[in-house]
Structures are given as C-alpha cells and as structure tokens.
Design a protein that fits this description.
Blueprint: H1 2-12, E1 27-31, E2 34-37, E3 42-45, H2 48-51, H3 60-71, H4 84-97, E4 102-107, H5 110-125, E5 129-133, H6 142-146, E6 162-166, H7 181-199, E7 206-209, H8 225-236, E8 239-243, E9 268-271, E10 282-287, H9 288-291, H10 306-321, H11 324-341, E11 347-353, E12 356-361, H12 371-383, E13 386-387, E14 389-391, E15 397-400, H13 408-428
Parallel strand pairs: 3-13, 5-6, 5-7, 7-8, 8-9
Antiparallel strand pairs: 1-2, 2-3, 4-10, 9-10, 11-12, 12-15, 14-15
Helix pairs in contact: 3-10, 4-10, 7-8, 11-13, 12-13
Length: about 425
Amino acid sequence: MSDSLLARHKAVLPDWLSLYYQEPIEIVSGSGRHVTDADGNTYLDFFAGILTNAIGYDVDEISDAIRRQVDTGVLHTSTLYLIRQQVELAERIAELSGLREPKVFFTNSGTEANETALMLATQKRRSNQVLALRNSYHGRAFATLAVTGNRGWSATSLSPVKVSYVHGGYRYRSPFSEFSDADYIAACVDDLREVIETTTAGDVACMIAEPIQGVGGFATPPDGLLGAFAEVLDEYGILLISDEVQTGWGRTGEHFWGIQAHGVTPDAMTFAKGLGNGLAIGGVVAEASLMDDIGANSISTFGGNPISTGGAHAALEYLLAHDLQGNAAKLGSQLLQGLRAHDSALIGDVRGKGLMIGVELVAPGGKEPVPEAAGRVMELAKQRGLLIGKGGLHGNVLRLAPPMTLTESEAAEALRVLTDAISQAEREL
C-alpha cells in the first residue's frame, strides 16, 4: 500500500516536496504521543508534525471543541463577519503576550505570520531594509525566503526586501564559539553595529529573529543576546520581531515565549504550529500602534476561522491547565542530561531548551558535519519505534520535539532508543 501511495505522490507532487525515510510512512492514526502507520507499525512520535502536535493525539478537549463547531454547520465565515472564537482566542493571546496594548491578527501558517510582521514593520518604518540572523529560517514565501539565512532553504535570490545578516544564532560553528557567554554577546553586538553602519542606509525597518533557530538545528544562543541586540536597535529606531513559531507556548520550558530568555519585550511576535495542535493557524501579536498602521483594506479569508480558533483556544487552555511548560522543563532536562552523558564520538553538540533539543553529529575528532550519520540514526530509530526530525545548515542535526504531554517513561524510552541508534551508526561508519 505504501509503495503505491509513494508512486502516486511522486507522480503528482513536486520533486522538492521531500519525504523522510528510505521507505516513507503514511500516518493513519494516533493516541497520546504515539502514531500508527498504514502498515500497522506504531511509533513514539518525537517530532510531532514539526513541533505542531504540541498536546499530542486524540485529545478529547480539543476534538470536542472542533466537533461543537462542526455541529453548527458553519465551517467558515471569513473575517468580514464577527467570529466569537477568534475574538476570544485573540483576547487570551493578548493577555499572555506581555506586550503593551497588544492586538492580534490570525493567519494560516507561520510563513504567513512572518510575511505579515514584515509588512507591518516595513510599512511603519517606510523602509524595505531588514536585519536577520545567519542560519535562520522564517518560511517559504517571497519575503520570508529572503530573510532566511540558510542556503538549503533559499530557493531564490529575488527579494522584496533588502536583507543584511548578522552573527549570533548558531554558536557551535561561529567564529566566536570559544568565547564566554559575555564575550560572545559582545562580539555579536559589535558585528550588528558594524553591519548596520556598513551595509544599510541606516533606516532599517526591523530585525527578525528566532530565539532558538528551529530548522537551523535548534541552534541556541546565549540568554540575553537578543536583549543586547535590542539596545542597539533602539538607537536606530529599528523594530524587533520575535519569530516564536517554534519556541512559543512554553516549549522551551523556562519561559512561555522564547524571547523572554533575553530580557526584552519585542515590538511583535509571530506564532503558529503548536497553538493549533495540528489545526492550520498562525498569527501576529503586536503593539496596537504597529498593528493598526496599515493604510489599506485587508482581510484574511481563512485566518481566524471558527474551527481553527475554537480548537486552538481549547489546546491553549489545556496546555495552561496541565502546566505543560513545567513538564517541558522537567523532561527536557532529563533528555538533555542523558544525551550529554552518552559517550559517542559522533556527537559534537547537544543543545536546546525544554522539549526542543538538537544533537549535532560530526566526524569523530573534529567538527566536520556528517549528514549521512543523521540519516542513518533516523532510520535506526524508526526501526526501533521512534520518529525524530533532522535539520541544521548541513543536515547533520537530529531534532527532538515531542508533544509536551510526554511522560517520564516515554522520555526514558526515547533516550534509550536514540542513544542505541547513535552508537550503532557510529559502529557502522
């Protein structure tokens, strides 16, 4: 069955729409943190639809909220009409944002959310100049590709914005990697100031940054870096956008928003993925003075629709009621300690926060990326019943981001499977 579906996939879908595994799987059912494929194999899911199924699978509270809306017969109305679920979710997100006088705009994805934030900032500042971090990823649309600092995801050099890239997000391969946290931050701040002075006209619209670089391999800068950047940005009137598509909703464990580790309140935050627990939703929360500064008509046909916002609100309340941020902190620490204690010459770096962990694989004795090892570990983990992700600038980073409802026994199981797979891959190389 899967072979037939794969052939049909290849016949009608783009070649660049990549699939995991030598024998790709079709996931047909799920419960808790486990999914089952079309051949009846069950797996512990440690990638959660790319950090999207944050609560897990078959959660009654979320499913019931969706069913209640479906039962009304209204799946869609558009933002031309009042949508109660949209207003209620926006109120909750505004309350949790920490921003002054926040307003919320809903989209269908993180890409669309980041496009909106860039539009707001460039309109506000009347400038198309943008600062971004090297090794970043912000989406697959025109402007978001332009501000993506990762060659593997940059499909075109054409751009509606003029981008300058700065150091800081990816410490492991940075020229400042051996510096102390304080010296690393100081060096990156110096670089930021020089980039502004030498590669821009000065009137830059914004900086967009991920507190932890997701597609970039969960690259994790020192706490306080973006706060130090913000001091420089403020000198020039440059806005700060925090891309919380992967770091939001408590996934990092220590904070509800990733930017909070940096001691700064941004002008806007973008979000998506985990909020909907699988429903298509994204958005921007920004200061009212920024959000309202659009001098043209605009709507969102599907953004903020009653099914997505109703289900997302239920997911958010579930997350808060069950302290999933605390669970992420506790079990993330358990996983990080176990991975860092594992003796393997393949492991160059173990990084991340909460249930957002990257394991960078390198040639023994050095830092040369070994993407084939990452691919092999993924296959071996799958054979043992564990699904994980992969990313990084060189495709050599294992990405672990299970549903935040993960249990201690499941974390222990995943750690055992993953370390066994890494050890076997090391023996085979």
